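Lab meeting minutes (informal)
Scribe: AK
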Amino acid sequence: MLGLNGTSFQPDTLQLTGIPGVQTGQAWVALIFCILYLISIIGNLSILALVIQESALHQPMYYFLSMLSLNDLGVSLSTLPTVLATFCFNYRHVGFDACLVQMFFIHTFSFMESGILLAMSFDRFVAICDPLRYATVLTNSRILAMGLGILTKSFTTLFPFPFLVKRLPFCKGNVLHHSYCLHPDLMKVACGDVHVNNIYGLFVVIFTYGVDSTFILLSYALILRLSISSGEGRWKALNTCVSHICAVLVYYVPMIGVSVMHRAAKHASPIIHTLMSSIYLFVPPVLNPIIYSVKTQPIREGIVTLFSSKRE
């Protein structure tokens, strides 16, 4: 049902598809999503609790890891209401304004993750290339300022999106191809002039993903060039960064895949686009705690101690 809003027709509610073409096996899909949410929430909360409780982990590297875990919780919780409603309760409608709010938070947390990964690469660069000044460069006040800067940058760049969408009329139906609200999905059902949305969206992507990924690559190039002269030394330096490298790959590879699919495979099956977007949103929050628990000894030992003490 369409309601008149000013001079634009907008749907009162939007219909969430879930996974297009998958009408059977919804219970299995719901179970998979519940398991992913459970792993993500428990894993990231465990890392946050560990860093807070263990004074030995009150160091810049683990503060940035806490930011990453907190952000991953935000990504999971921003998609959780509509995903569980769609697959567990078969409730597939979401209010138009609620959809815009969810879209804003999903994209904001996603863009913040890119900034946090950049900050973590700077942390590794200072720790390896200038270890004697590590504590004086990355003070608590500077870490807090970096975190607030990442939050401010993501919030301000994404803030116009809901208003840019709200000004558009919707005349191509109200059915979305996901179980959550994304800006590209909303553009598919909007009509009118969407050039401003597309141009601003491209600007935000380049300003965020493009700049952040460039500086992440630059930081590792400098680590390899400036820190160690021998091949064995370079290997040891990279070995201290393996957790962060894995986190970068887990985040950027699906993101690049989604971007390529959106632009180069527009006519591919909707289920492919949905699965790629789901991998992009659900895999990093699930894998990041596992990666750092497995590859970072203080985190691994701390989590074992944390859970063993709860059993006693």
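Next up, CB showed the second protein from the same session:
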Amino acid sequence: MTAPLPVWRGRVLAVLGIVLAAASLRSAVASLSPLIDRIAADFPLPSAAVGLIGTAPPVCFAVFGLLTPMLTRRLGLERLLIVALSAITVGLVLRGLSTDAITLLLATGLIFAGVGMGNILLPPLVKKYFPDRIGVMTTLYSTMMAVSTFLPPLVAVPVADAANWRLSLSLWAVFALAGTIPWILMLIRERGDDAAAAAAVTVPDARAFARLVRLPLAWSIGIVFGTSSMIAYVSFAWLPTIVVDQAGVSAPVAGLLLSLFAFMGFPASLLVPTLVVRFQATRTLSLIAAASGLVGITGLLLAPIPALIWLWVVLLGTAPLLFPLALVLISIRARTPETAVALSSFVQSVGYLGAASFPLIVGLLHDATGSWIGPLLVMAGVLLISVPFGMIAGRRRTVEDEWEAKHGDW
């Protein structure tokens, strides 16, 4: 067996391109919500517009996740990522220049379209450029995504105080613009080499997505991803209100608890990809995620006291370790970058479509019952349902293997 190459050897531009792209995919989303009050002070911002901004990310991610394989067949992975990062860059600048709720929504929609494509493209790019270092590179870019989730809310208000909310929103365009440069340089470098230029275009099989619909392995990874997304989106929407109502903590403490929940994605991103690739720990990690989330939810229901609320949030925040788990599974459960494009699209579209409705369901259920018992039990039920799918996702075979075992050649 050939020893894996050092990550940097001959692949510096690919490393930089993937890391900078990962930074843009979450900072573009996480930088807006802390500034809603500042924006509303400058122009009317109806509650419906704020609600659309809150629910749009998973819907856009799912829709553009479905479109990405088709666009990849036309442009290739690298060129489409440049398009996605360019859309994010332009959207962030335009969002900072917004003059009313409509322009803010349109700019945000452009950002989410770019993020939706970028989400799909990173796992197959890792598969293509780092087949010998999938665990290391998934750790690197998922950790960058975790950092860029909890960092923007911490700096958004101070920057707005020092300058204004427009600069605070627009400054993240620097990362997206920087993310395009390594990929542009790679394409320029390869332009004169026909073989290399041909290799730069990864063309997904048009039939692969339809085949994945018939495979339990693909659905299992999608449900694992969707469970993580559900916990994350419900928590970002409702956790501060839940801890205020259940434990009686103050609003500032509730904000700190939400930051703690988001921070738990950082150690998970550092550890999970390596544990999966080196130690085949998918099933163990799935059980840990479900058990931790269930204990956290039980604590919020049965012992919601200020002294313990921090522990319950830490445990609930452990459940989204399923996110880096699903990302690395997309890479290792496909033989080729071409199949990884289709699998990434399928998994993330299924996951985000499933997660998109849960913040609304939780809110409606709370309004109907006047209690958080029902919503928390719904979250617990989803975690329980995810367990057998985590076991299926832990099977050491690719989607091609599963197809060939049932239907013949892939």
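CB comment: The chain has two domains: 1-203, 206-410.
No objections, moving on.
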